[in-house]
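Lab manual, section 2.4: Encoding a predicted structure.

Procedure: take the sequence of the chain (427 residues), apply the prediction step described in section 2.3, and record the output as C-alpha cells. A sample record is shown.
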Amino acid sequence: MSSSAHAPTPYLVSWNLTRRCNLACGHCYLDAVQRKSEARGEQATAQCLLAIAQLARVARGAMLVLTGGEPLLRDDLEQLVAAARDGGLMPVVGTNGTLLDTQRARALAVAGTAGAGISLDSAAPHFHDRLRGVPGAWAGARRGIAAARDAGLALVVQTTIFEENRGDLAALARTAAQAGALAFNVFFLVCTGRGVTQSDLTSASYEATLREIVRLQEQHPGMKVRARCAPYMRRIQGLHAGEGNADHADWSSACLAGRRYLRITPQGEVTPCPYIREVAGDMRHTPLAEIWNRSPVLERLRRELPKGKCGECDYRYSCGGCRARALAQHGDLLAEDPKCGYTRPPDHRPEAAPAAQLRHVHWEPDAQARLLHIPAFVRDRVRTLLEACAVQEGVDRITVEFVTAHRPPTALLNRLRAVGHTRAASD
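Recorded output:
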C-alpha cells in the first residue's frame, strides 16, 4: 500500500453531480430526491468547471463517471463532459436510461462522452419497475440502451443483485450481449442510504453468484462480465497479490476505494467511494491534490491492513474485503468484511505483501509525458509492458522513439480499454 507522500494517481472518479432523480429507487445509496428544492447546496456550473480543472491536474487520464441521482437532469451535462474531455479525462455517464433519447445521446457523444452505464435490474419489467419505484422504468431503460448504442457510445449494462433477481442473471447477460454492450456489470448491494431497507444476499448466495458470473463470462467471451463491490472475486479466481490473468492485471487491487478511486458528492466533498460516507476533504475549501495526498482517511486505506479474519486471510492483500460493508456494519473502515463467508484454511499462511516492483530503466521526460496521454486505468499496465521490453532488450533508458517503436498493438490497447470501461460504476 502507498504512503501519503507518494499517493498513486487515481484512475477512476465517480461524481454524483446531483441528488435529483426522476425515479425513486429503493436501494439508492445517495437517497436521491425528486424535488429541486430538496437538493440544496449542489455545485453550479462554474464550481463544477473548477473541480474538473483540479481533476485534470490530479487524475489526468482517469475515467470520470458523471452520475447522480440522475445526471441527465442537469442542463449543463454536455458542457461538463466537454470540459472533462478537454482536460484529458475520460468522461462516461451513469444513468437510469429513462431520459436518454436519441437526441440527447448524440449530443453527449458529440460533447465527448466515451460511454454510458445504464441500469437494468430484471429481464422483464416487474421487478425493475418495483425496485425503481416508477411504472415504465424498465421500458425507459431499454429505450435508453438503444439510444446509447445508436449514438455510438460504449455501452455498459448494470444490474444490482438481490435474491429476487438472482435467477435473471443469465437472461440479463444475454440481453446485454444482444444490445451490443461492452460490459455487463453485476453490483453487489452495499446497504447504505435507502439501501439499508433492502435485504442483502447471504454469504452463501454471494459465493454462488460470483461463481455464476465466472460461468457467464465463459459463455460471453466478447463481453466483459464483472462483479462490482465484491472483492472476493480475486479469491474465487485464485489470484494472489502480484498475479494476474486476462481479467485482472497483476498490479490491480480488488478494492480501489481511496487507493485508485475517489468519489465527489454533489456539494463537492470527497469520499473514498460512493458507499463510504467518511469525508476525506471538501473541494470547496481544500485543493483536491492536498485531499488526495494527505487525507488521514485515504491514508488508512492505503497503509493499514484490515482487522479480524480479513487481516489474517491468505487473500488479505489481493482481496481485503469490502471496506464500505465493514464501515456500514461495524462503524470502522478497517473492520472485517461481514459478508465474506471464507475462512483461511489452517494450513495456509496469511498472504505476504506484494513485492515492490523495481524500476530497472529510466524514463526520459518526453517519453514520460507521452505516457501521461494514456488513460490512467491502463497506464501502469502499458508502463509495465514497455519496461519489460526494455529489460529484455538490454535498454536502460526509455525514449519517445522507444515508446513509438514498441507501441502496443491495437488489439492489446482495445483489450486494456475494455477492462477500464467495465470499471464505470453507477446505479
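Check your result against the sample. The longest helix spans residues 376-393.
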